[in-house]
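Figure caption, in words: inputs first, then the predicted bound structure.
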Amino acid sequence: MKKDICSFTYEELKEEMASIGEKSFRAGQIYDWLHAKLCGSFSEMTNLSRSLREKLEQEYEILPAELEERQISALDGTNKFLFRLYDGNMVESVLMKYKHGNSVCISSQAGCRMGCVFCASTIGGLKRNLTASEMLRQIYQIQTITGERVSNVVVMGTGEPLDNYDNLLKFIHILTEEHGLHISQRNVTVSTCGIVPKILELAEEKLQITLALSLHGATQEKRRKLMPIANKYELSRVLAACDAYFEKTGRRVTFEYSLVHGVNDTPEDVRELTGLLRHRNCHLNLIPVNPVKERNFVRPSRENALNFKNNLEKSGINVTIRREMGSDIDGACGQLRRRKL
Ligand code: SAH
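Bound structure (S-adenosyl-L-homocysteine present):
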């Protein structure tokens, strides 16, 4: 099998080119074509000799993410993309336009094995991990297709990023590195269902990215009903790992909480959440649950969600309701991909 050239970091590509007898500045040129000019084929690399291009063609490949479908919201300009990978697996990504810049949400795996009960991405199980280059390619394609510059990246699409840890780290390094798109680490968010050992490892990486923790329940019992991973890592351990992340990086953790009517949006939940978060320097993001065809969870009314938020605010919690984007073009996370399977 040919080597996946877009998954080499800048330093690795220099070593790789040295190993095939090429000078280091050639690695710089190739890296620039791949990660700054967002080039998808060796034949476009016109400042390389034909023989070098042929050599690259034989030994390496630029893994594709071919556009399968694109939906554009008439309400807010949100774009949803479905991309086809080299082996026929599909992944979806979203471009959201905000006043402060463009944000892209990418997938980290084809499918997911975490089994959260309200999530569409997990229904067919995990197909495979994405390579670092396949995570990057989603962003490169979106910039190329739309002509829009991306300034924020959230790893909140299909998949559990910390279940694909090594590729995720490479992805972050290449994405934020000065010779590529050079996106600020502070503009990168990684969302996890709470894989404790990996959160602790991530805390040691000396990165400035934001960690988002999918909480969804304020007690071990409630969380366990929604997220099977809670059986493996108890809530107290997950919170301790988030505290460690904050201590090591100075980065405030975001807690995500999908509001499911009658399940986790009661006054008791407000009290329990307050107890959990009041003394933590954090941010709470409420996501009224997106109904998934295969599941029968009910989304709270706008009024209920606002009440829930206001009650938390009164107790001193730093909380927002996630603004709904592109509600006219998709169902829940992972729904576009599901429809195509
Ligand atoms: N595996 C990671 C990232 C992917 S999901 C994680 O668990 O964090 C991104 C966020 O969307 C998570 O908080 C997830 O729980 C939430 N989510 C998934 N399906 C949803 C749905 N139908 N409605 C609302 N939020 C959902």
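The chain has a mean pLDDT of 96.
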